[in-house]
Design brief:
Layout: E1 2-3, E2 10-13, E3 17-22, E4 27-34, E5 41-48, E6 54-60, E7 77-82, E8 88-95, E9 98-103, E10 109-114, E11 119-126, E12 131-140, E13 146-152, E14 158-163, E15 167-171, E16 177-182, E17 188-194, E18 200-205, E19 219-223
Antiparallel strand pairs: 1-2, 2-3, 3-4, 5-6, 6-7, 7-8, 9-10, 10-11, 11-12, 13-14, 14-15, 15-16, 17-18, 18-19
Length: about 240
């Protein structure tokens, strides 16, 4: 779920497409993007960039029609950029599970994770064009779980949620580990900063197969000593005005 340039409307990334949703009256309209490889492949993580484009990544579909789960695998994932005018471009393929889409405070770098590869990559980001280039490894092989969603604070540190790792890792711009936040459940999925001062980290989690994991699926709020960045907005309406 991504903010748009209208306060009453969210962009919601579903398995096969993007819809615009007004929660006040539950009105839903299709944005226009649809995944041609559906249902073999589904969409996963998504976020707007500083220019107002929507970046979405995909993965091999591991959800059956009845809602039960299949094992994830393969390298069918693709990273897409959807511009406000509806133009779609493809930026990376052969991805296991697409996760973590964040930009540095100076808007010079873009970070993207492949969960199955246990790797977060960094690209150079051109704010003028919205293009990414010069991919390289950033944070790989951390032994606790796998990289899921992330956010970035105003100091340029990446907060990475670890699926199966029961923790969040704050990673410095030089890829060193600044701190590890222990969590009371196994599958930590993503996070973002909120409240008026942007110093509260809101963290989502998912169901778990670990016996006794009673906090699985819970939403957590963690006070921090650093400030986050406001979430970017998908400029889907501004493009048409």
């Amino acid at each position: 779920m991504v903010l748009t340039d209208r306060e009453d409307t969210f962009a919601v990334v579903l398995g096969s497409k993007v819809v615009l949703w007004k929660p006040e009256d539950d009105r839903r309209t299709e944005q226009g993007f649809s995944l041609k490889s559906w249902p073999h492949v589904r969409l996963n993580d998504a976020r707007a960039d500083p220019r107002g484009s929507l970046w979405v990544g995909s993965m091999r579909n591991n959800v059956n029609p009845d809602g039960t789960s299949e094992e994830a695998g393969g390298t069918d994932g693709v990273l897409y950029r959807i511009d406000p005018d509806g133009t779609v471009t493809q930026w990376k393929d052969a991805v296991g599970i697409s996760n973590t889409l964040v930009w540095s405070p100076d808007r010079k770098f873009f970070y993207f994770a492949d969960t199955l590869a246990n790797a977060i990559h960094v690209f150079e980001y051109d704010e003028a064009t919205g293009n990414i280039s010069r991919e390289r490894d950033f944070f790989t092989g951390f032994p606790r779980g796998f990289p899921d969603g992330s956010t970035m604070d105003a100091e340029g540190y990446l907060w990475n949620c670890r699926w199966g790792g029961a923790c969040i890792v704050r990673v410095a711009p030089d890829a060193s580990i600044d701190r590890v936040i222990e969590m009371p459940t196994a599958n930590i999925t993503t996070c973002t900063f909120g409240n008026s001062d942007l110093k509260t980290l809101y963290v989502t989690t998912a169901a778990s197969d670990v016996p006794g994991d009673r906090f699985a699926g819970g939403l957590f709020a963690i006070p921090t000593d650093v400030q986050g960045q406001p979430e970017n907005r998908f400029r889907v309406f501004g493009a048409a005005s």
